[in-house]
Automatic annotation (TrEMBL):
NCBIfam families: gltD_gamma_fam (TIGR01318)
Organism: Sphingomonas lacunae
A Pfam family it matches: Pyr_redox_2
The keyword Hydrolase is assigned to this record: no
Ranges for domain FAD/NAD(P)-binding: 151-452
SUPFAM superfamilies in alphabetical order: alpha-helical ferredoxin, Nucleotide-binding domain
Name of the protein: NAD(P)-dependent oxidoreductase
Domain Dihydroprymidine dehydrogenase: 25-136
One Gene Ontology molecular-function label: oxidoreductase activity
Keyword set, alphabetical order: 4Fe-4S, Iron, Iron-sulfur, Metal-binding, Oxidoreductase
């Protein structure tokens, strides 16, 4: 195929892969968009301006060589495009699906600034790597020459899996421990299938298994072994557990039946979709079918919850967010998908109380308005005394974000220092206050994006290798 000339952003319209209509996609948990055809992918890649200073790369946590692999894709050199994309990311097809490109690479595209619409970077990235899997271009993980060193990794999410891959390539023996019964962390249990189908994760994990990485699912540090005991088993340890403790919502009625945490709700839905027997789903506790659902929060987790509730057959779904649309932390693209599927957003709204007789029946909602900027520069929400209402609710899902668990206590390691937010304290070498124990991902930086977890996993593998070189 001849390929396409570059810098076509003015001559070629922006085109995302076709989405299934809202009514049909809201009935299942399959991905909502088709894949590009090869002709479409080449044409959209050719819209790249090939900037001298590529802001897309600058704003990608992984520093992906985006203009370079777009050029290769435009020229029809897809295998080379995949190799370059894979050079900086262990999960390009996953990032292509779930990264908030509108806040990262695409949101900083020069074509977007010029009014022609961003290059569809995420969709092309997904196309390139899916094509690589289809054609057998994804090479197996080949371990390096055995070093005789053993690394233990606690947590099988993006940071842990990425570090495991790089450390295995170096030649170390790598064992990954995880509390869940499946490997993948929130990629499996926290993100719904309409954003990331689970076979996409499974094939990545299987590649690591074939490459000789040992996985120990259903393993809890503190229950099955202390951190000190794991230190005796391995030459170095990495803590990459993520953050799972739901942030509190201090309003009256939080303890009513039917007021649930977002992660409990999403895990129940994903487990059911994977074929597990989930009693809390079967008895309706964590099932939105036929219910009036209210989700509290404005991040990506809240968007996952509202769109999951639609697919479970909720009678209605409303999302309360205390700031306005322009100031919400979640992806605007996800908000658009949710609106298409029937979700109602109540901006500048917050719960004042959950009401009912033993079980949630109503949510007292207070209006909010934006006041002076806070320390982050965002305008702080404050009550608006002129607005308020009471809305019917059979299920309330709290999606306010996540904090770190008390790892020093859970792990039986009082010497493990934490920050005032409960995250693990690390030095410039990504080592904790316990010698030979490193930290990466959300347990260090707080609740963040998958792409940052991959970046941390890549970086910490290098730091562990450097430390091992000096500790024979």
């Amino acid at each position: 195929m001849a390929g396409q000339d570059m810098q076509q952003f003015a001559a070629t319209d922006q085109l995302y892969p076709a989405k299934r209509d809202a009514a049909s996609r809201a009935r299942d948990f399959q991905e909502i968009a088709a894949r590009y055809t090869t002709v479409e992918a080449e044409a959209q890649s050719a819209r790249c301006a090939q900037c001298g200073v590529p802001y897309c790369t600058v704003h990608c946590p992984l520093g992906n060589h985006i203009p370079d692999w777009l050029r290769l894709a435009a020229e029809g050199r897809l295998q080379e495009a995949y190799a370059l994309s894979n050079a900086t990311s262990t999960m390009p097809e996953i990032c292509g699906r779930i990264c908030p490109q509108d806040r990262l690479c695409e949101g900083n595209c020069v074509a977007e600034f010029s009014g022609h619409g961003a290059v569809t970077i995420g969709s092309v990235e997904k196309f390139i790597t899916d094509t690589a899997w289809d054609n057998g271009w994804v090479e197996p993980l080949v371990p390096g020459k055995p070093t005789g060193r053993s690394i233990g990794i606690i947590g099988a999410g993006p940071a842990g899996l990425t570090a495991a891959e790089y450390l295995r390539v170096t030649g170390h023996e790598v064992t990954v421990y995880d509390r869940h019964d499946r490997i993948g962390g929130l990629l499996v249990y926290g993100i719904p299938g309409f954003k990331l189908e689970k076979d996409i994760v499974a094939r990545r994990v299987q590649r690591l298994v074939v490459g000789g990485i040992t996985f120990v699912p259903g393993f809890e540090v503190g229950r099955d072994a202390s951190l000190a005991e794991l230190r005796q088993r391995h030459d170095a340890l990495l803590i990459a557990t993520g953050v799972y403790r739901a942030r509190r919502l201090d309003v009256p009625g939080t303890g009513l039946n039917g007021v649930v945490e977002a992660l409990d709700y999403l895990i129940a839905s994903n487990r059911t979709g994977l074929g597990d027997d989930v009693p809390e789903f079967a008895d309706g506790t964590l099932n939105a079918a036929g219910k009036h659902v209210v989700v509290v929060g404005g991040g990506d987790t809240a968007m996952d919850c509202v769109r999951t509730a639609i697919r479970q057959g909720a009678a209605s779904v409303r999302c309360l967010y205390r700031r306005d649309r322009a100031n919400m932390p979640g992806s605007q693209r996800e908000v658009g998908h949710a609106e298409e599927e029937g979700v109602r957003f109540d901006w500048l709204s917050a719960p004042e109380a959950f009401e009912g007789h033993g079980r949630i029946e109503r949510v007292a909602v207070r209006g909010m308005r934006l006041g002076a900027p806070d320390a982050s520069g965002r305008r702080s929400p404050e009550p608006d005394p002129e607005r308020g209402e009471s809305i019917t609710a059979d299920l309330v899902i709290k999606a306010l974000g996540f904090d770190a668990e008390d790892l020093p206590t859970l792990f039986g390691e009082p010497g493990l220092a934490v920050t005032r937010w409960g995250t693990i304290r690390v030095d410039a070498a990504m080592m904790t206050t316990v010698p030979g124990v490193f930290g990466a991902g959300d347990i260090v930086r707080g609740a963040s994006l998958v792409v940052w977890g991959i970046k941390d996993g890549r970086d910490v593998a290098e730091r562990i290798n450097s430390w091992l070189a000096g500790h024979r």
